[in-house]
Structures are given as C-alpha cells and as structure tokens.
Design brief:
The chain is mainly beta. The chain has a domain at 13-59. The protein has one helix and five strands. The strands form two sheets. It has a three-stranded antiparallel sheet. It is globular and about 35 Å long. The chain starts with 12 loop residues before the first strand and ends in a 21-residue tail after the last helix.
Length: 80
C-alpha cells in the first residue's frame, strides 16, 4: 500500500474506526490470520473497524467524495 496522499476511488473507499483514515477495501494486512487495517501503525480489525466511506461522508458532507490515502478524517468533523 502506498502511504502517499493519493485519491481512493469512492466505490472502493472504506474508513478505519481506529486510525480514522481511509483506504481501499481491497487492501489489508494479515497478521496471525486476522485481516487488519493496512496502515502499519494501526491495529484496527478490517472486519470490525472498517466502515464504508459513503457512511462517513453522509455524516460529514464536507469530506471529499474520494478520500485521500493517509489523510485523517475524524468521525465527527467540525462543521464549517
């Protein structure tokens, strides 16, 4: 997985509850048979902590349609 802030296609975008970053649903790390968030500094479970990006964006309409990889997107964004 690239850690550069590149755009993730909206149809594949998911968000991690633990680290509050987006990634492609096709990406994960496998540790002891468990699928984890692909960010190496996160221990989020890809089954339990992975939310669809559309759900996050519905609650935070100021977020982009296609999130940036590596960018933090707090669950409760400040309203502008």
């Amino acid at each position: 997985m690239s850690t550069e802030e590149e755009s993730i296609a909206a149809k594949f975008a998911v968000w991690c509850l633990r680290c509050e970053r987006a990634y492609s649903a096709r990406e994960f790390r496998k540790v002891d048979g468990v699928r984890l968030c692909p960010y190496p500094d996160c221990d989020g479970d890809a089954a339990l902590d992975q939310w669809d990006w559309a759900r996050i964006r519905h609650e935070n309409p100021i977020y982009p349609a296609s999130p940036l990889r590596g960018h933090f997107y707090p669950l409760h964004a400040r309203r502008r």
